[in-house]
Amino acid sequence: MELREVHSVDERWKALFQEYDTNGNGFIPLSDLSKIITNTSRINDLPRTKHDDIIRRADRNRDGRLSQEEFIALMKNADPYLSRTQWLVEKAMEGVVPLTSRTVTVSQYSEHYNCLPPPLFMILISITEVIIFIYYCVELGEFSSSGPVPVHSVFIYNPHLRHEVWRFATYMFIHAGWVHILFNLIIQLLLGVPLELVHKWWRIMFVYLCGVIAGSLGTSVVDSQVYLAGASGGVYAILAAHLANAVMNWKEMQFGWARLAFVLILAVADTATAVYYYYIGTDTGVGYAAHICGALAGVLVGIVTLWNIDEKPWEVKVWWISLCVFMALVLFGIFWNIFYCGYPHDNLSPICKTGL
């Protein structure tokens, strides 16, 4: 039965091809094919999802015409020339490319995608975080939803050791329990890998690390006594980068309001929770400031760094504003760390040390 159905489908496409092969030479010139597709009296002969694919992918040998075999393959499969990797890239791009640019941009990008370099940053950073988490579980003899918390680790952000500046970034390798690391891994892999497939690893790495550093700088400003662990700053940056992508392609982006609402709900919930626990005097051990600052960095750096598909004049202004705001906030955080005298024990400023 299945073979008979396949044969029937092939015969139907052969008949359609022969109808379009007006010269009877076994080929359809692409110029004629374009007229056929755009001719309103015959457009229903072809599935609508095939129209752009036919023009763009049909002439694989660049001879200006389409053979019967190419025509049938194209009719039976929307993506007959895509490898599995390219198909994956195309599906990833469908979530981050505007609707009006999707048909051409997604297909052209995926067709030429060669996985060089491969999207390994989010995967490698996740593996590293898991290895370090396991190491401290073994070293401290603890594995729970809230531990271990290696407060003496060389990686953790320690407000007493701010002169060891690498801690402003390396705290992302430390996680307080399996729930903490599992949440971060799920978000950064599910959202980060698709972004990395489209925007390349170095852009996503830059967004991620900026979120991590913004998280620690922001925490050092608003909550100067707090230790900091976890990659939540980077995770929220990746999450917010999706929002940046929607902002830069707002009118064309599918579900733009839903993306904005999702990020805003997380931000408002985090802020409200932080304010509530601060008001009642409860220390939850959660770095809410790192979440908020990481998300803010994700939006600002995402606008600056991520690939803008169709740049418009107003978006250039947004680009410069985002760059200036981010740099201003980072410089403020750095100077605050240098000159503020309220940090525990290790004030970096000579003014604080001399008491002037």
Describe this structure in words.
With 356 residues, the chain is an all-alpha fold. Helix content is 64%, strand content 2%. The protein is built from 15 helices and 2 strands. A two-stranded antiparallel ribbon has the order 1-2. Helix 10 packs antiparallel against helix 13 (288-305). Residues 1-6, 40-44 and 98-113 have low confidence and may be disordered.
Task: Spell out the blueprint of helices and strands.
Blueprint: H1 2-20, E1 27-29, H2 30-38, H3 51-57, E2 65-67, H4 68-76, H5 84-94, H6 99-112, H7 121-140, H8 167-170, H9 178-199, H10 201-222, H11 232-248, H12 256-280, H13 288-305, H14 313-339, H15 350-354
Short description:
The chain is mainly alpha-helical. It is built from 15 helices and two strands.
Give the key terms.
single chain, mainly alpha, 15 helices, elongated
Q: What class, by secondary structure content?
A: mainly alpha
Mean pLDDT across all amino acids? 75
Outline the biggest β-sheet.
2 strands, antiparallel
Q: Given the structure, what is the number of helices?
A: 15
Give the strand order, joined by hyphens, for the main sheet.
Answer: 1-2
Gyration radius, in Å = 27 Å
